[in-house]
Amino acid sequence: MATSTSEPADQASADETHTSDETFNFVVVSNRLPVDRVTGPDGEESWRRSPGGLVTALSPVMENNDGAWIGWSGAAGDHLAPFDEQNMHLHPVSLSEEEIQLYYEGFSNGCLWPLYHDVIAPPEFHRTWWDAYKKVNRRFAEAAANIADQGATVWVQDYQLQLVPKMLRELRPDLKIGFFNHIPFPPLEIFAQLPWRKAVLEGLLGADLIGFQRDSDAANFRRSVTRFTSHNVVKNSIHVGDDQGVPSRIARAAAFPISIDMERINELTARPDIQERARQIREDLGNPKYILLGVDRLDYTKGIRHRLKAYEELLNDARTKVGDVTLVQVASPSRERVEQYRLLREEIESTVGRINGTFDTTQHSAVRYLHHSYPIEEMIALYMAADVMLVTALRDGMNLVAKEYVASRIHDDGVLVLSEFAGAADTLKQAILINPHDIDGMKEDIVKALTMDPEEKSRRMRVMRRIIATNDVEAWSKKFLEALNSDLDV
Ligand code: G6P
Predict the structure, then answer these.
(1) Rounded CA separation 473/166 (Å)
(2) CA 99 – ligand 1 centroid, Å
(3) What tens digit of pLDDT does each residue of 389-401 get?
(4) Residue 397 Cα, ligand 1 centroid: separation in angstroms?
(5) Cα separation of 299 and 50, whole Å?
């Protein structure tokens, strides 16, 4: 069992690997560690818990189970010893600059990400990227094999690590292995493009339980398994055959929609300083009648261009006017060395510049564009200030921003405009559901949101808040882990 470990020992020799004698009964494996390195004003480096659903979802499970987390620090060439931070045992995996280019920016984000998001951007298929993906996945699998107790539960996360379940099972057949895919799983006809489709499916099928965001993702996966492997699929169970094709074990695949930490958001929305900050934000924006809000990683899947187009046309058509309305767009920097992301940033920023140049007044901005990440406290204040939240993703695994907005509307007011292509649309049916490709439709729906009567707003919001309160992130991880540790149908 775990005992306390050392501080990060930085910059060991390039090929040194840190082995550990400690073993753990519960191990999470994800591309990134749940902490980010921050440099203080005095130049001192420390770690801060990363924002985001996965960390909040899993950190209580980690604490209760004395678990360990395996992941990459986010920097090239780090060779860090295991360390404890935020009540978690962290086991860093190192990536070289070249591996970051080929495995992370290349295969994960230049091939799988666009392929799994409806080929919104063209995926690239390079054998050198695939080779690096295999090599790095093996490194993560070995790290997990080294620190898992006999019979431990290992939970592998997301598309960057799809080969880990099979590699890990080969090394450690005694383990219970779960996998959760945070992004969509594409329809067979799109997945078919992947030259390594069979290896990816076999990689995932190393898990006992494979979780997806939506029923449609799980169904897409099972269809691809039927089409591209020889394993037999019966409802949600896949009878995985051994090398001779004899069924040797069962892997299950089903939907487990992820959610948010409702309790934490309740604490934050009750804080007077955050409520005051929400009032301040409205004042800083010149007290418009309506604040529209978009919060996204700056990613081409999020439909930011479509949203800006609809908004610009509404201003052009004089269906609304600056002063009455302001759009706050938080676009947090993301994957900035990947070409598609660089191009997107240029396009968004020139569009915002054009809209503001045309419609700004000396007192008011049409779009307040913020290319930053903010701490959760500031995000909650923004959600509390915003009259309408615009989630216009062209494809999105879940979209936790939509759920956070609903959770923050403690007075049951505000309107959520939500793309039907986000996983959250399966749960939040009382939102105004939109097709972001239909610009005219989106314009009508934004006007509908701005003019909705208070009773209807409140009725819709109340239902959505109740749904999230009973399906929060704790319920999500509990449900997944209970299913993983039982052999029942899912
Ligand atoms: C999505 C993915 C995560 C990823 C996050 C941020 O939510 O599902 O796995 O960590 O984006 O992207 P990044 O490439 O910065 O880790």
Answers:
(1) 27
(2) 17
(3) 999 999 999 999 9
(4) 11
(5) 19
